[in-house]
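Supplementary Note 2. Why include the ligand at all?

Several targets in our set were suspected to adopt different conformations when bound, so apo predictions alone were not considered sufficient. For every target with a known small-molecule partner we therefore ran a joint prediction. The input for oxa(dethia)-CoA is given below.
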Amino acid sequence: MYNAVISAVAGYVPETKLTNFDLEKMVETTNEWILTRTGIQERRIETDPNKANSDMAVEAVKLLCEKRGINPSEIDMLICATVTPDHVFPATANIIAAKIGAKNAWGYDIEAACSGFLFALGTAAQFVQTGRYKKAVVVGSDMMSRIIDYTDRTTCIIFGDGAGAVLVEPTTEDIGVKDFIFYSDGNGCKHLHMKAGGSALPTSVDTVQQRLHYVYQEGQPVFKQAVYGMAEVSAQIMERNQLKSEDIAWLVPHQANKRIIDATAQRMGLPPEKIMMNIERYGNTTAGTLPLLLWEYEHRLKKGDNLVLSTFGGGFTWGAMWLKWGYDGDK
Ligand code: UT7
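The joint prediction is reproduced in token form.
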């Protein structure tokens, strides 16, 4: 058995910014409301109709290969976490692999909403720990703007587009993924889902007219569960591994709402300077949030740093992972 370590990280966000002031002109809201209730100032949106989710992911994976100095043909496994696949099928992972020339990779998608990247990282780590695969790419990528109703002020203020990717490799050093705890509860479906477009309610003229192909979210129940779930599972991973707050270098929390992140950090006894945060610039990119954080904070990370990754999302799905970072600073 090996340890599975992140050996490189990269990200991509579209150029176009959608600010709170832009949203003020689109729905009945204010910059002040959005900022105080969520911590978000702006998000990125892909405006080119010819670009799909896989195109963002391709940019991230290309940069990842450049940073690690490998050819895409060396990738032997690629998992993509997303709720906005290019198509219902085939898997977006396959499309990404084809576009970048990862011809020796097999792969599939994981659909666990905002927890998708963490679940995918845990899955890839198992394959790498056994020694079966040596270069597994884990992508978290969502083009949320394609499934958001920009007339619904309760959802359009939160979400944005973005992609991140990590490379996972085997090592015999005491670094990498140490432990994880994952949960899911399908009873949460009613509070956060897309009503039409699946086998429960296939697409029809009627479903389109009723705007049922957009994200439906009941904010309050999701908020309450997220605060409880993310804080609780983060405390659990600490207790199970006898980690004290001073042992943890960074909390890497899903970026859905600054208030949820603050509650999680408080439960873990962590000061603000140990919390990775970029929600103010990107909003909630669903499966993209965690790898985008790692990408932006990479230059501040040191080999051996204890990171706790923590998330909550639609499903409901939630979880936490303890990992020891594998290298110093930027690649
Ligand atoms: O990542 C996936 C998981 N998702 C989440 O974790 C999201 C969890 N939920 C949340 O982050 C929050 O519930 C929201 C940001 C979505 C909403 O914030 P809230 O503090 O829970 O607001 P609320 O839904 O309780 O609404 C409070 C008030 C309502 O008005 P009344 O009934 O008090 O008069 C809403 O109609 O705010 C109103 N409101 C708005 N006002 C201005 C709702 N959305 C807006 C808006 N601008 N955009």
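The radius of gyration is 19 Å. The pocket of oxa(dethia)-CoA is lined by residues 29, 33, 37-38, 114, 153-154, 157, 219-220, 222-223, 226, 256-257, 260, 284, 313-314 (CB under 6 Å). Comparable summaries for the other entries are listed in the accompanying table.
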